[in-house]
Design a protein that fits this description.
- By secondary structure, this protein is mainly alpha-helical.
- It has one domain (53-211).
- Helices cover 49% and strands 0% of the residues.
- Helix 6 (83-89) crosses helix 7 (91-110) and helix 7 (91-110) crosses helix 9.
- The longest helix has 21 residues, at 191-211.
- It binds iron/sulfur cluster.
- Iron/sulfur cluster binds at residues 106, 110, 112-115, 118-120, 127-129, 191.
- Residues 1-18 have a biased composition (Low complexity).
- Residues 1-24 are annotated as: Disordered.
- InterPro entries: DUF5981 (IPR022026).
- Residues 93-184 form the Methylene-tetrahydrofolate reductase C-terminal-like domain.
């Protein structure tokens, strides 16, 4: 059912503006408390469900970021070695099976959201797309004193965890690199294949240049 738009006077707007947060209380809590009460509670964001999710695998991956960095580098090398195979079969033909595997493996390990432009190696193996605000360049100003998220109080802030994970990694300082905004047109595509195809094309070009 479409919501009806009504004109808002300045006094309406002032009444709708939540009070500013007292010290020690996040703005999200103030906004939530001042919101009109209703019988509809979306199942997906119930506190109970949030408590039940422990983020255990995601946090394990961050704790083992150094080992995963090593593994990922080998895996990328292997994928690049197979570039002639992917190219021979056709990248578009192998996309569906590779994406199927990528989605499940990264979904299990990192709660991957398939943004298609993976930056896990620059974020301590903590997927930034799990940030409710989908920030790609560090945390917002609302991180709680216990290091948890302003919006999801039971979830550790993905950027606090990203910093911790990055400190274990050999190339962890990549977290300081400025990331581009998410290109939404790449959603649900394979980051593995994209990176491999780009590296493979660069390799082919270099080889052609050397042979000329
Ligand atoms: S950065 Fe994107 S591709 Fe990488 S794990 Fe997160 S959602 Fe998935």
């Amino acid at each position: 059912m479409p919501e009806t738009l009504t004109s808002t006077t300045p006094s309406d707007a002032a009444a709708a503006t939540p009070p500013s947060a007292p010290v020690g209380v996040t703005q999200a809590t103030v906004v939530k408390k001042s919101a009109p009460k209703s019988d509809y509670k979306p199942a997906d964001v119930s506190p109970q469900r949030r408590v039940q999710r422990s983020y255990a695998i995601r946090l394990w991956s961050i704790r083992h970021s150094r080992g995963l960095e090593w593994f990922y580098a080998r895996f990328a090398d292997l994928f690049l070695l197979l570039h002639p195979v992917w190219k021979g079969i056709g990248y578009s033909r192998v996309e569906a099976p590779v994406k199927f595997v990528e989605k499940r493996v990264k979904g299990f390990m990192f709660d991957c959201r398939m943004c298609g432009q993976c930056i896990l190696s620059s974020t301590g193996m903590s997927c930034p797309m799990n940030c409710p605000k989908q920030l790609r360049n560090g945390p917002c100003g609302g991180v709680r004193a216990n290091g948890n998220c302003e919006v999801e109080p039971d979830m550790p802030c993905v950027w606090v965890k990203a910093w911790e994970g990055s400190r274990n990694m050999v190339h962890g300082d990549a977290i300081l690199n400025l990331q581009k905004p998410v290109d939404q047109s790449l959603r649900e595509t394979s980051a593995w294949l994209r990176v491999t195809a780009q590296a493979g094309a660069a390799k082919d070009q270099a080889r052609a240049g050397a042979g000329a």
